[in-house]
Amino acid sequence: MFTINSESSKKTEKIAEKISLLLSPGDVICLIGELGAGKTCFSKGLIRALGVKNKYVVSPTFTIINEYQGKYPIYHFDLYRLKNENELEALGFEEYFYGKGITLIEWADKMKKLLPKDRLEIYFSYVNENTRRIILKPKGKLWVSRDMESFSENIGS
Ligand SMILES: Nc1ncnc2c1ncn2[C@@H]1O[C@H](COP(=O)(O)OP(=O)(O)OP(=O)(O)O)[C@@H](O)[C@H]1O
Ligand SMILES: [Mg+2]
User: Fold this and answer.
1) Residue 117 and residue 110: Cα distance in Å, rounded?
2) N or C, which end of the chain is more exposed by having fewer CB within 10 Å?
């Protein structure tokens, strides 16, 4: 588990950029935190870092999922308006999660039981107007095997 303080939305995007360097096809990233905690800010930073132009990246709050093509396919979920898990089944979520793209899930805590074993959980919390606490929790063998230790040493800088 690693904790980083982000003092600006720019820094949150920078952190996302650094995390993008660790990713390979099939990775699932779960973004968890209250309204305005920085999940979309992080997602935008990550999606841009994977080569998608700024202007195309929008929050999928009303659509549940947006797809992008960058260095890899990117599936950006926002489950805030999800009513129940049947809606996810209808979307065919497993095709995304176990496919060849990078999956980002805002409000991933809404589908806790359906998440894959291997995932990077990222918790966001509000500290003050411009500061957010970001906690990285790698879950499952895949993430534990990645060198998060040396990674975390320079992520906040
Ligand atoms: N250090 C920071 N990191 C990220 N966002 C920050 C930071 N400081 C201030 N902000 C601001 O906080 C807001 C974060 O909004 P964002 O849409 O990313 O939150 P969210 O977690 O996706 O919320 P929601 O659940 O409503 O979608 C933005 O307006 C952003 O400018
Ligand atoms: Mg959001």
Assistant:
1) 16
2) C
